[in-house]
Every structure is written in C-alpha cells, then in structure tokens.
Design goal:
Blueprint lengths: L5 E5 L8 H10 L1 E6 L7 H15 L6 E3 L1 E3 L2 E2 L12 H10 L1 H20 L5 E2 L24 H17 L3 E7 L15 E2 L3 H8 L1 H5 L5 E4 L3 E2 L12 H11 L5 E3 L12 H11 L4 E2 L5 H10 L5 H12 L9 H18 L1
Parallel strand pairs: 1-2, 1-12, 2-3, 3-6, 6-7, 7-9, 8-10, 9-11
Antiparallel strand pairs: 4-5
Helix pairs in contact: 3-4, 4-5, 4-12, 9-10
C-alpha cells in the first residue's frame, strides 16, 4: 500500500535532523525535502541525511531537492564540489555558435546531475527560464541564459535534458517570469505593469516552449495586466488562466518559498492561499521549526490532480545515461576559470 504524503516540501535546520525534526517528518510525511548550504558538508553526511529523511517519511522515492544552478546559486560549493558557470556563460557560447551553446548547457547540467545523483538528490531547481529586462532587478541577472526568449527556451531545454539524462528531475523557474521584476522577491513584492501582449511574447514564451517539463516553480510577482491584487503564487487567475491556460503547463506546480517577504500574511495563511490558487505543492525553505509546523498544519494530503501530477513527475526519473564526462569537466573548468579571471 502506498504511503500517503502531504503536499509540501520542507527544509531542515542543519547537517543532521534534530529529534523534533525527526518526529515532525515521521508524523507529517512531506512530499519532499530541500537542501541548502547549511545542510551540506561532506558526501557521507549528505547521503546519510537523504537516507534518514526517506526512512522517516516511509518512501524510498521521496524527492530531495536542491538549488544547484551554478554562479551565485550553488548550494554544493568548493572545495567539496566544483564551481559551475552562470547561465549567461552558456548563453555567450550560444551567441557565437548555437549548437555549441546547447551542447554546453546540456553537458554542464549533466555534470551537475552526476554530483547530485551520487548523493541521492533527485531534483534540481534548474533551469532558469526567466528573460531579464534591462531595468529588471539583478536577482535574475546572469542566472538567465539570454535576453532573447527563444534562446532562453532552447538553452533551458538543453539544461533540463542534461539533468534528466543524469537521473535528476528539473524544476523550471520562475513561471510565468521573474525577469521583468524590479525587486528581489526574497525581500519585497515585485509589481510588473507591462501589458499582457508583451508578457506573452517575451516573458511567458520560454515557459510555453517548456510546458512539457515535469516540475515548475512559481514567481512571487504581481502582473497587473492579469491580476493586480495577488502575486502569481497566490493568484488563481494567473495559475489557471496563464500557467495552466496560455502557457499550457500540466506538470506539478510548486510555489516558490512561502517564507519569502514578497508574500503577506502569516505563514499558514500564505500556504492556504497558494493551494486555493491552484499550486500543487507548497515549498518552505528556511528550516524554522515553528514555520515548518505552520506550513504542515495548513497543507492538505496530496490527492487528486495534484497527486497525479506529482506521480507523473516522479515517473520521469530514469537511470543515468553514459555521457562525455571529460568533455563536460573541461568545459566547466574553462568557463569558471574565465569567469574567475574576469572577476
């Protein structure tokens, strides 16, 4: 008989699970666990943490997630793990040679997948499919592959395929687009006043091209042309009309971190709001135990369409394929060396 889970992904405070966290995981059975630098020290420690989580929730396939993009967003860091390039570094290869750019994005992601799979981590919050605007906040910046939506779509596709070829699921983010935001949603609520036609032609376009991917993460951004009152994460109109409708995404949709300051109200109110809007999963990242409890209390059991989408996502996991590892390592080392020299 399948073990029932609740529709949230939780963080943890440190390198090992506390007694309170162990009891919480066993009782609440979240769908997944997300790791941050505070949770990562050695390979053995991470592998043990992953196994302990799965044992407590009673599911060998319980997803373990991480943000391992490269550049500024890399939770597994040197000296234990190699540095990875920014999305923009791959985009610059594309600008000179599109085929080489796509291959570079694929190989870089495939190498990341090798790192993650060895630890039991099965989901990476990559690729970034946001299209940065000239006056947008640099919270996206060089995390994006390009300012051209068609190139973003191609490169994000290549990175997603690299992850999946390595036995790791991608999470495309931040749907339907964070690149035009003039604020960092970790700290404040961005409001985008661009007309819908422009949004559809530029911001939404990469996500539409990637609508078949298994998992996506919302943007905590208000789009006044669609819903002036709520950010995408808690907007039924944005999720149903744009993400499920215009974009056509039928995969498993998680809200971005519910503890970010872009969202208003208590943690439990935020959690209920994102489920009411149509998100399949809540994501809570900071490891604050009182907040973890509040999210769990406001989260339903994973059932119905949300359960179908979550199961369909996990069904996309396959065994890692062979790849040109030496070529991938040389590419990544060359790109990061160039970046270091420029810095």
């Amino acid at each position: 008989m399948a073990v029932e889970s609740k529709a949230f992904i939780t963080g943890a405070a440190g390198l090992t699970l506390t007694a309170d966290e162990r009891a919480f995981l066993a009782a609440e059975r979240p769908w997944g666990l997300i790791l941050f630098a505070r949770n990562c020290d050695t390979r053995t420690q991470i592998s043990d943490l992953v196994l302990r989580f799965r044992d407590l929730v009673g599911r060998d396939d319980a997803p373990v997630l991480i943000d391992q993009e490269g550049g500024r967003v890399q939770r597994l860091k040197p000296p234990g793990w190699r540095r990875y390039p920014t999305g923009r570094a791959y985009g610059e290869i594309y600008d000179a040679d599109p085929a080489a750019g796509r291959r570079a994005a694929f190989l870089g992601a495939r190498l990341i997948a090798e790192d993650l799979a060895a630890l039991g981590i099965t989901v990476d919050c990559l690729p970034v499919a946001d299209v940065p605007a000239p006056d947008g906040h640099d919270v996206i910046g060089d995390r994006a592959y390009s300012t051209n939506p068609a190139i973003v779509a191609e490169m994000a596709r290549a990175a997603a395929e690299g992850l999946m070829a390595g036995g790791v699921l991608p999470v495309v983010k931040h749907v339907p687009g964070h690149g035009r935001a003039r604020a960092d949603s970790h700290l404040a609520l961005p409001v985008v006043e661009t007309d819908r036609a422009t949004l559809e032609a530029i911001d939404f376009a990469p996500f539409k091209a990637l609508a078949d991917l298994p998992l996506a993460m919302t943007a905590h951004v208000v789009y006044t042309a669609i819903d002036p009152d709520a950010p995408a994460t808690t907007s039924h109109r944005v999720i149903e009309e744009v993400i499920r409708g215009t974009i056509g995404f039928d995969g498993c949709l998680m809200g971005d971190d519910v503890s970010m300051k872009a969202l208003a109200g208590s943690i439990d109110d935020r959690t209920r709001a994102l489920f009411s809007a149509g998100c399949d999963l809540a994501l809570h990242c900071n490891g604050d135990f009182a907040e973890m409890r509040a999210v769990a209390d406001a989260t339903p059991v994973l059932t119905g369409e949300a359960a179908r989408r979550a199961s369909a996502a996990l069904a996309r996991l396959t065994a890692p394929e062979q790849f040109e590892r030496e070529e991938a390592v040389a590419l990544v080392e060359r790109l990061t060396a160039v970046a270091g020299a420029v810095a």
